[in-house]
Amino acid sequence: MVISMRLSDIYKKFAAQNLFAARLGEDRTIAGIAPIEEFDKDDLVFVEHEALIEKVKQQPPAGVVTCPELCEKLLAISGLGILVSENVKLAQALLGQAFNDPRPPADEWPNPHPSAVIHESAYVSSTSIVGPGVVIGKNAKIGEWVVMMANAVVEHHARIGDHSIIQSGVFVGHHCRIGCNVILKPGCIIGAEGFGFAFDEQKRTHRIPQTGIVVIEDDVIVGANCTVDRATYTETRIGKGCKLDALCHIAHNVTLGEDCVIVAQTGIAGSTRFGKRVIATGQTGTLDHKTVVDDVVLVHRCGVTEDITEPGTYATTPPQPFREYTRNIATFRKLFDLRQRLQRLEKKVEHLLKS
What we know:
The protein is built from 6 helices and 39 strands. The protein is of the alpha/beta class. It has 2 domains: 5-100, MurE/MurF, N-terminal domain (Udp-n-acetylmuramoylalanyl-d-glutamate--2,6- Diaminopimelate Ligase, Chain: A, domain 1), CATH 3.40.1390; 117-327, Hexapeptide repeat proteins (UDP N-Acetylglucosamine Acyltransferase, domain 1, 3 Solenoid). The strands form 7 sheets. An 11-stranded mixed sheet has the order 10-13-16-19-24-27-30-33-36-38-39. A 9-stranded parallel sheet has the order 9-12-15-18-23-26-29-32-35, with no helix packed on it. Strands 8-11-14-17-20-25-28-31 form an 8-stranded parallel sheet, with no helix packed on it. Helix 3 links the parallel strand 6 (63-66) and strand 7. The chain is flat and about 90 Å long.
């Protein structure tokens, strides 16, 4: 994507966020953002490891974003512009969002598309894009600068906040509330009925209607083909800043605190509560009605079968503190040898007793 901004203008643009500690070297015009493996002379690249400096020396770009530790070595390269950041990876994320974030062109289709079905009582901001096959139900509200891609469905009385992107094939159930700057990736199902059943004496199942809603707060990303079930009576809530990878399932009545990260194929059972900044790595699972406190990391397919009440890293099922888990794994690998040694000792003891 073309930027066509001077390095000094980029520095000023992010001044309020204190993203850059300094601007050094030349004030070059930046044409675009590019990877360190392949860039042109007018591009901006990110250099966070010393091993990458040689690549910059061989073919200098217009500018680099780097950390304070590498500044001196990069300043020696003639004609190079430098932005200094304490967190190069964060700078890469924020600059990418500002300049390279792909959005569908506003003129790709007529807006709203003629195939879209919008209830007469629904409110859709004139700044929003409504693509082919979109369905918007009774009394639904679509905020400012929302993008709704092909075949997205927003049922009656649902709300979509400003600057959100609802990608192709997304379903948002009735009365659910989606915050601002939310991205729902293709195939997300938000607000389907939760899995609630009662058994009779013959073990037949009877559906319990799920009359609650889903609330997704601001700045959340929900990955492709995730499912977030509506609550039985109140709400399933995804806290501000949470990031969900593809193929995650969030069951009814679950609460995720702010800034949780949920990685692919994780399943969180009903009425479980995660605190803030919980990270659940791939294929984590929980039983229902469990609580996980703030600042917990769940690794190695952790199965949460009991409450976790202390911050830290946990693994396996039931959850163990990571150091304890690694010690147990190390011992487990030696079990056969330990068994043989024990058998030899038993024979020696038996022989001594006989003698």
